[in-house]
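Support request from a user on the community tier.

User writes: "When I paste my structure tokens into the form, the page sometimes reloads and wipes my input. The last time it worked, I copied everything first. Here is what I submitted, just in case something in the input itself triggers the reload:"
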């Protein structure tokens, strides 16, 4: 295998691998591979709101690391939105980008053979503004959930709104 393509969805992986053919291996990250730990605030409010990110999908990361070792080039083909961009950035960081592998960012706006082949031929770079936007949203969600939800819960206890939280579900 000389070229590895990483997408978010296993269903997309199978279809894209058929379109690309020999010389390409397409694997899925199964969505996010890093996040804030579940049972702690994990945001350093004293140090510019720095998040404490941990690998959440160790099985996928282990599988992807093995595939990266065998690849000459790695195409990060996650979705073209904040979440997808953050996943691409996290993959770049956790898959040991310092090993001199060539990492390329590709975006498929549709899953057709023509678009996939064009995207592979015209890679871009990770959009760090989208990554930062996703991080900021995730940090705000955590701060709201951990700091404000307990107050809401206490205030709304016994009312029809009991159990309401200030956090937004992760999407």
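"...and here is what came back when it finally went through:"
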């Amino acid at each position: 295998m000389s070229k590895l393509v990483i997408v978010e969805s296993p269903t997309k992986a199978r279809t894209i691998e058929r379109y690309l053919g020999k010389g390409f291996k397409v694997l899925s990250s199964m969505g996010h591979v890093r996040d804030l730990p579940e049972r702690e605030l994990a945001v350093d409010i004293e140090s510019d709101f720095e998040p404490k990110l941990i690998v959440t999908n160790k099985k996928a990361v282990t599988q992807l690391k093995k595939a990266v070792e065998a690849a000459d080039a790695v195409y990060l083909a996650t979705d073209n939105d904040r979440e997808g961009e953050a996943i691409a950035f996290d993959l770049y960081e956790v898959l040991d980008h310092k090993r001199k592998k060539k990492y390329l960012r590709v975006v498929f706006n549709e899953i057709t053979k023509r678009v996939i082949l064009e995207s592979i031929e015209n890679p871009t770079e990770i959009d760090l503004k989208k990554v930062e936007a996703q991080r900021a949203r995730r940090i705000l969600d955590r701060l709201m959930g951990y700091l404000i939800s307990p107050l809401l819960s206490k205030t709304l206890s016994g009312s029809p709104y009991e159990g309401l939280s200030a956090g937004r579900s992760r999407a």
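Agent notes: The reload is a front-end session timeout and is unrelated to the input. DSSP finds five helices and eight strands in the chain. The CA atoms of residues 32 and 87 lie 6 Å apart. Escalated to web team.
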